[in-house]
Amino acid sequence: MKKLIQQICTTLDSGQDLVLATVCSQSGSTPRVAGAKMIVFRDGRIAGTIGGGLVEAAAIREAADCFATGVSRCHAFDLSNGDAAVTDMICGGRMEFCLECIRADASNRAVFGDLLAAMESGRRAVLVSPLEAHNGEQRFVVDHKGRTTAADVSEALLAAVKQLRPSTSAATVLEQAGQCYLVASFAVGGNLYLIGAGHVAACTAEAAARVGFRVVVMDDRSEFANQERFPSADEIRVLPSFAGCFQGEDIDRDAYLVIVTRGHLHDMEVLEQALQTGAGYIGMIGSRKKRNSIYVRLMDKGVTEAQLEQVRCPIGLAIEADTPEEIAVSVVGELIYQRATGRKAWHLA
Predict the structure, then answer these.
(1) Structural contact between residues 123 and 308, judged by C-beta atoms closer than 8 angstroms
(2) Are 338 and 256 in contact (CB under 8 A)?
């Protein structure tokens, strides 16, 4: 999705308008789920997909009217009827997509720039777009803390957006005070903090980057924590020590902490700090014997059993992993599962 937003920004910066198609609702079996997006350019070219076939053909056809009028519109499809059958799209479900004409003006360039900045920082965001432009309302972004980029958004609308997010898909149409808005949530891959820069961390960083995590590597050894060993990492930090390693970090449910330091004492030191954060995932490498030893010492220091129940240790899926490469697959598999299931309970501040 980040690449699609980058393409929107590039297109708007070049002075070209575009039409953005978004699946805003779906039920049953459909080719794409709510939130899927596709750009339609003036010459009929597309980027992204909302399902192919009949659905995309209709979107491309109707985009021409959007360019001409500047008016957004929604289109419903029943993929169980005869029209779908003749196009080999017998999915059996129903879906609706919205088409927005996005002009290459300063307001839209700023809004999509804000959206891209949020995604590049590893933070989720929500884009709110009025579907009726007669009252001059503009699009705006709501960040992961519930803050908006626009100064003139009504409190009632902002409250409705925040309340809507926990129980909806990645995009939906919201009606507020007689106006309809397309509310699209842009999830992110998540910020993965690898605390420790050994062999397992190197393999985990590479695998995690390939499935969309933003990877931050932290270690107190510059000979291990460096770009040569971690070419796919987004950020590498050489620490003076592991004490205070999360100080100043904005760690929330989109953060994943993987503790793979070089020794038990460092693991315990980092784990004690990790339990004070709001991370959505905390995992520590090691055997059950090592885990139990560390847990006993932490409870002696006042850490509760309830806190320790948050920790995944031994880390990773139980696939009999042995080598660093296999352990990385196990760990990243668990991270993917946590990311998919944890999003269902996430909501704006």
Answers:
(1) no
(2) yes
